[in-house]
């Protein structure tokens, strides 16, 4: 005589399992907080920018995407993780997020809230220049500015030694219908040991900039260009990956007829993780 299949769990039993998981997650978050508290005591000082760890965050985010599966949307996982990291960073060394809302106030606010939550103070500015200047005057704040367009060459403020630098590009996970899809650079001061240099960003000032030069450069790197009256040309923000180099960019500019006036490294960030249209594993 064949045995009957086991009865499915009741609704009450399933809810008890969920309650146990919720309690476990809360306890783990509190445990994480205890470790952060011990970390602060070990440091005994809140060094400027020391709490930001772009390289570690990029590595952790890649691991999260690679192991994610099931019905829970990746958007939710990414946002939860980002808020946890940002909040604990804020606990270690309080900071504010200065956002340039001139491109799109709703989109920039969505990006700030998605990546930093509501605990970290949010300060709106009406230009990228103002946001960057606010960070330069702060002890450890962070700025968000558009990564694809600009009205002014705000990155010139990052050229000096000791100035804030580009430390990240968000969203880190590229996918269709991202809830915070506005491409932004994060700018702050970070310890050299915490940086990730998979993509380097350079401030390049040229004369003789025109459409032909722009077309010659576009296959080699991502570029933001604005008029630069000081050199009767253009100020470029050039993002260079491992597939090329700033020397190749310089050579391409000269070959296309432009004159390179100055080049300065103004930051770096991780290579973005692109999720295919089919999404992560299920």
What does this structure look like?
- The chain has helices at 11-43, 54-67, 74-92, 105-116, 128-137, 211-217, 246-255, and strands at residues 97-100, 122-125, 142-146, 165-170, 173-174, 184-188, 199-207, 222-228, 233-240, 259-269, 273-274.
- It is an alpha/beta fold and 282 residues long.
- It is elongated, with a radius of gyration of 22 Å.
- It is an enzyme of class 5 (isomerase).
- Residues 5-96 form the Chorismate mutase domain.
Which helices and strands appear, and what pairs or packs with what?
Blueprint: H1 11-43, H2 54-67, H3 74-92, E1 97-100, H4 105-116, E2 122-125, H5 128-137, E3 142-146, E4 165-170, E5 173-174, E6 184-188, E7 199-207, H6 211-217, E8 222-228, E9 233-240, H7 246-255, E10 259-269, E11 273-274
Parallel strand pairs: 1-2, 1-3, 5-11
Antiparallel strand pairs: 3-6, 4-6, 7-9, 7-10, 8-9
Domain Chorismate mutase: 5-96
Protein name: chorismate mutase
Organism: Bradyrhizobium agreste
Q: What are its keywords?
A:
five-stranded mixed beta sheet, 282 residues, alpha/beta, four-stranded antiparallel beta sheet, single chain, Chorismate_II_sf, 7 helices, CM_II_prokaryot, 22% strand
């Amino acid at each position: 005589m064949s045995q009957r299949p086991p009865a499915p769990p009741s609704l009450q039993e399933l809810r008890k399992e969920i309650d146990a998981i919720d309690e476990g997650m809360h306890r783990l978050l509190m445990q994480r907080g205890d470790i952060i508290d011990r970390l602060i005591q070990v440091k005994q000082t809140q060094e400027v920018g020391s709490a930001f760890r772009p390289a570690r965050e990029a590595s952790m985010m890649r691991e999260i995407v690679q192991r994610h599966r099931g019905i829970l949307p990746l958007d939710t996982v990414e946002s939860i993780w980002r808020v946890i990291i940002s909040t604990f960073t804020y606990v270690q060394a309080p900071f504010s997020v200065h956002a340039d809302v001139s491109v799109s106030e709703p989109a920039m606010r969505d990006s700030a809230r998605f990546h930093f939550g509501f605990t970290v103070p949010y300060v709106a500015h009406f230009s990228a220049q103002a946001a960057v200047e606010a960070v330069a005057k702060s002890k450890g704040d962070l700025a968000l500015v558009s990564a694809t367009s600009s009205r002014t060459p705000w990155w010139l403020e990052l050229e000096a030694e000791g100035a804030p630098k580009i430390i990240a590009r968000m969203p880190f996970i590229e996918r269709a219908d991202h809830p915070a899809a506005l491409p932004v650079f994060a700018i702050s001061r970070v310890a050299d040991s915490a940086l990730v240099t998979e993509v380097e960003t350079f401030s390049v000032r040229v004369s003789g900039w025109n459409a032909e030069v722009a077309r010659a450069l576009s296959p080699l790197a991502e570029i933001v260009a604005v008029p630069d009256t000081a050199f009767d040309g253009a100020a470029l923000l050039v993002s260079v990956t491992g597939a090329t180099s700033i020397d190749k960019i310089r050579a391409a500019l000269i070959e296309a007829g432009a004159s390179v006036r100055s080049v300065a490294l103004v930051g770096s960030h991780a290579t973005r993780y692109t999720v295919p249209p089919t999404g992560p594993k299920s």
